[in-house]
């Protein structure tokens, strides 16, 4: 029973926010923004430097305010500061 309650609670909290320091963007309030999960490959180092985020969790995301149009190289895939 407890597991079921926890699961329901967890699902409710499922909205994105920007992990960048001093950025208050959330997916629930900033509908025009996109939220990007950190990449798992080589790009992660460049992302860390550009966003000054050192600790990356599975739900750590960065909103599109921190990207330039030129950062987007393929739909859904980006490289920062390279
Ligand atoms: Zn942001």
From TrEMBL:
Molecular function as annotated in GO: DNA binding; zinc ion binding
Pfam families per UniProt: THAP (PF05485)
Residue ranges annotated for the THAP-type domain, each copy included: 19-70
Keyword terms of this UniProt record: DNA-binding, Metal-binding, Zinc, Zinc-finger
UniProt xrefs under SUPFAM superfamilies: Glucocorticoid receptor-like (DNA-binding domain) (SSF57716)
The organism's place on the tree of life at top rank: Eukaryota
Organism: Trachymyrmex cornetzi
Record's protein name: THAP-type domain-containing protein
Claim: NADP is one of the keywords in the record: no
């Amino acid at each position: 029973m407890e597991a079921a309650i926890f699961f329901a609670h967890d699902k409710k909290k499922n909205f994105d926010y920007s992990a960048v320091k001093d950025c208050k963007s959330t997916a629930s309030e900033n509908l025009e923004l996109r939220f990007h999960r950190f990449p798992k490959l080589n790009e992660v180092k460049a992302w860390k430097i550009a966003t000054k985020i050192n600790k990356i969790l599975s739900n750590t995301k960065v909103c599109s305010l921190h990207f330039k149009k030129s950062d987007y190289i393929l739909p859904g895939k980006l490289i920062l500061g390279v």
